[in-house]
Amino acid sequence: MRFDEAYSGNVFIGANPDYETSRVVIYGMPMDWTVSYRPGSRFGPTRIREVSIGLEEYSPYLDRELAEVKYFDAGDIPLPFGNPQRSLDMIEDYVKILLKDGKFPFGLGGEHLVSWPVIRAVYQKYPDLAVIHFDAHTDLRTEYEGEPLSHSTPIRKVAELIGPKNVYSFGIRSGMKEEFDWAEKNGMHISKFEVFGPLKKVLPELSGRPVYVTIDIDVLDPAFAPGTGTVDAGGITSKELLASIHAISNSKVNVVGCDLVEVAPVYDHSEQTANTASKLVREMMLGWVK
Description:
- By secondary structure, the protein is an alpha/beta fold.
- It is built from eight helices and ten strands.
- The strands form two sheets. Strands 4-1-5-10-9-6-7-8 form an eight-stranded parallel beta sheet, with helices on both faces. It has a two-stranded antiparallel sheet with strand order 2-3.
């Protein structure tokens, strides 16, 4: 793979054209091969970039500008359509190179299964890793209709890899009873329905630790993000998600990588979801990359 140019010509607003001098690398993981309801998240990374042209580069929340963070947009990894295992292997190999080069990996999905190989690669570099997970769904299944490679399984895979006690899920409002029972039995932190308040309480215990943050856009209520594959009523507001991102920014947590997944533009003709995602990317980058 080449890193001196993007895979595609479309880049996030303000991106640095030089890989070598960039601290952050934005990369797309256009995969929706295993979704159980509606496909379309493979088009999320491209649309998030496209709508970023309308985004202000200044954050009034953080009093920082995107120009203060050098980031390279590598475009989308050319994943083989319909081949989950090969796609996951390619993503993991890609992220390993980013980490070897000292880059901050910032992934855009794609279905949530794409987070699994990324976290596996990050864990190899940071063996005391913790994961903060924002989502409507537990994603703790071992398989979906007999298939272990499913967008309903990534957090279970992560928990079994790094230890359930090192996984902190917020905003959860959907999942099988067995998933909730497994989490409780194994000491995994799950905050049902809420995000900001419970997050503020646990951030001090993560102080100084390397943390990977994965955000499924469906943690937001469908009123704020209808453009996603599996909408689920009763979610949080975009204001609360922004406040939660800023709470992490203001903590002593060492964020070492992140992703934003499950934006499916075809289900939102207003483009509200993609525009919200674009703003979230700005706040995550400005708040988490010091």
